[in-house]
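Q: Structure tokens for this one, please.
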Amino acid sequence: MFFSSSRISSAAQPPVAPPEPLTRFIFSSSHFVPSARRVKAPAISPSPHKETGRLEWSVFRADKATSADMWDICTKHVDNQTIPRFAKARGTCAASVMIDQDLCFDPDGKPHPRHVNVIGWPDPTREPKDKLKNIQQKIAAAMTLEVRP
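A: Here is the predicted structure, written as tokens:
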């Protein structure tokens, strides 16, 4: 099943294509296993948007970007010097993995032009919790782990 991000897309950003690699920066050491090069399901946890309440999961487009490019984006736009909070790793997989789970994309380009919100998550108050957990496990299993250099 194919869900185009153009259903919910910012005018300035092109739709996300199924083969496009998307990367998620991971902050908690408990969300990945370096020795197994594996991302754990809890790393895929959508959060409600502060204004809309819509469940979102923040990722970045990695197509035609080097590892150094992605870590530069993380340093400048994702890490938080004030708290301090720094990504320890990142997981990357094709957008098709999320599309296969009936998720969609909102490529809002904020805080960086490569930023995309993954949307369409099951509502845990209305649907079985196993549904969300199953989606998290499938996405995590498809991700390639890169520990921060």
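A few notes: The first strand starts at residue 21 and ends at 26. The chain has a mean pLDDT of 91.
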